Amino acid sequence: MHRLTLLLSLLFFLSTATTFTRGHNITHILGKHPSFSTFNHYLTLTHLAGEINRRTTITICAVDNAAMSELLSKHPSIATIKNILSLHVLLDYFGTKKLHQIREGTALAATMFQATGSAPGSSGFVNITDVKGGKVGFGPEDNEGNLDVFYVKSLEEIPYNISVIQISKVLPSDVAAAPTPEPSAMNLTDIMSAHGCKVFADALIANPEASKTYQVINK
Ligand SMILES: *[C@@H]1O[C@H](CO)[C@@H](O)[C@H](O)[C@H]1NC(C)=O
Ligand SMILES: *[C@@H]1O[C@H](CO)[C@@H](O)[C@H](O)[C@H]1NC(C)=O
Ligand SMILES: *[C@@H]1O[C@H](CO)[C@@H](O)[C@H](O)[C@H]1NC(C)=O
Ligand SMILES: *[C@@H]1O[C@H](CO)[C@@H](O)[C@H](O)[C@H]1NC(C)=O
User: Fold this and answer.
1) Residue ranges per structural domain of the chain
2) Atom from ligand 4 closest to the CA of residue 185
3) Cβ of 189 less than 6 Å from ligand 4
4) Where does the record place the FAS1 domain (predicted)?
C-alpha cells in the first residue's frame, strides 16, 4: 500500500477507536464551563490533560479565567506554567463531602508536581484544612502555612475517579513558580505530538528518512 494511504487509514482507525475510549476527559469536562477556558487551554498546552486522563483517584483544583490572567500577566514560561498547574492536580479523590469532613480537619495531599520529581522536599504537597465557618483552605507546603486559597464549588464529580473543583486563586508556590528554562531546541516531532498529530509524528520517528526531510523543510 502507498505510505500515505496507509497513514490515512491508520488515522481513520485511531479516530474511530477513540470514540470507544472509557474514562474521563478533563478537556471535555472543563469545556462545559466557559469561565475555565484558560485553565483548560493550558492543561492541553502543557500536556497535563493527557496525564490527568490516564490517572484515576485525582482531584483537579481549577481556577477561573480571571485568576489565570493574573498568573499569565507575569509572563511565565510554559515549563513554569506546567509546574504551577501540576501543583493543582491532587493525587487523591476529594469530593465536596470529603473536603468538608477531613479527619482531624487537616490533610496533606501529594500532587502531580511532587510526583514528577521536580519538587524538592515537601514543596509538592498541598495542605487542605477545614478552617472556621465551614470554609476549606488550601496552601502549598512551601508557603509557610498560609491557607488563603479557598474551595469555591464543585464542577464535576465522578467518584472515585476524578473530582474537579474550583478554588479561589492560583496556589502560591515559589518553588513551582521558579523560572524553568525553555527546552533548548524545539523538536518537530514533539511539536506535532503536542498538536494532536501523534500518529504522524510516530510515523516520522519510525521513518528516519522522512523525518530528516521534515526537519529540513521546517528550518
Ligand atoms: C473510572 O475509571 C475506570 C478506569 O479507567 C473506568 O473503568 C470506570 O468506568 C470509571 N468510572 C466512571 C464512573 O467513569
Ligand atoms: C477530549 O475532549 C476534547 C473536547 O471535547 C476532544 O477534543 C478530545 O478529542 C477528547 N480526547 C479524548 C482522548 O477523547
Ligand atoms: C496545615 O496547615 C495548618 C496551618 O498552618 C497547620 O495547622 C496544619 O497542621 C497543617 N496540616 C498538616 C497535615 O500538615
Ligand atoms: C525528537 O523527539 C523524539 C521523541 O521525543 C525523539 O525520538 C527524536 O529523536 C527527537 N528528534 C530530534 C531531531 O531531536
Assistant:
1) 23-177, 185-217
2) 14
3) yes
4) 23-171
Q: What is the pLDDT of residues 150-196, one digit of tens each?
A: 999 999 999 999 999 999 999 999 888 887 655 544 566 666 666 66
The three cell numbers of residue 39 are 485553565
Ligand at shortest distance from the CA of 55: 1
For the sheet with 106-110, list strands across it.
Answer: 89-90, 58-62, 162-167, 149-158, 136-140, 125-130, 106-110
Band (145; pLDDT cuts 50, 70, 90): confident
Closest Cα to atom 13 of ligand 1: 158
Cβ burial, residue 72 (10 Å; 0-12/13-18/19+): middle
Q: If you count DSSP H runs as helices and E runs as strands, how many of each does the chain have, helices first? A: 12, 7
Degrees to nearest 5, angle at CA 185 with 184 and 189: 135
